Amino acid sequence: ITLVPNEQPSDFWDELDGFSWVVFTSPFGVETFFRQLKERWLDVRAIAHANFAVVGRRTAETLAGFGFIADFVPSVFTSRGLGDGLAGLVTPDENVLLFRARDGSDELPSILGAHGISFTGVAASETLRNPLPAAFADALRGKLYDAVTFTSASSVAAFTDCLSPGEAECIRAFCIGDMTAEAAGKRGMLAETSPV
Q: In this structure, how many other beta carbons lie within 10 angstroms of the beta carbon of residue 143?
């Protein structure tokens, strides 16, 4: 898959001071956010007041590269872990900016909504499906791989959409979380959740 950044409307950038929390679900989202911030001649002062929450260690490292230390990183690097943690941190008077992929799972927004957390979801990126490289597809069909790893339900969908009917069956899938494993299982793969 290829991630392509979405440009945000200019009025979005004018409202940054209204968010108490900025939440990122991927390193790509962090990079996209700060690149677009700079393109608008805004600097870190536009968001210096905010707390930051990220889905995992790699996203936290990317955020640190822009000079911000994450205020919250869940111990389990999943949308559920992120949502459950935020539910205990965000107060009723705070607003959350959720900067994520357009086709990301609905789990995090659902958790936030269920806890009455006010949030604005922003589509930071689009996921484009690429054809499988011929050499990889041949190796997969020849059973030269023991397993395939997946980091999101959208990567499962993109991968299986490139296969012929029935080819996903018997592929062993190591998945980053339960939602990803569920998506792989629905596509016929032998899915298991792999600890991060």
A: 9
- Using the predicted structure, report yes or no on whether residue 188 has a pLDDT greater than 80: yes
Phi (first) and psi of residue 147, to 5 degrees: -160, 165
pLDDT value, residue 1: 52
> In the numeric block, which tokens belong to residue 191?
């899915």
**Cα gap 184→172, rounded to integer Å:** 9
Predicted confidence (pLDDT) at residue 90 exceeds the cutoff of 70: yes
Rounded-to-integer distance, Cα 134 and Cα 73, Å: 38
Burial 20-49 (b: 16+ CB within 10 A, else e): bbbbbbbbbbbbbbbebbeeeeeeeeebee
- The token duo for 81 is 């872990």
194: Cα within 13 Å, side-chain hemisphere: 15
Of the candidates 8, 20, 18, 129, the one whose C-alpha atom is nearest the C-alpha of residue 72 is: 20
Question: Tens digits of per-residue pLDDT, 40-57?
Answer: 898 888 999 999 999 999
Evaluate if pTM is beyond 0.85: no
* pLDDT at position 193: 84
Strands 2-5 and 118-128: antiparallel
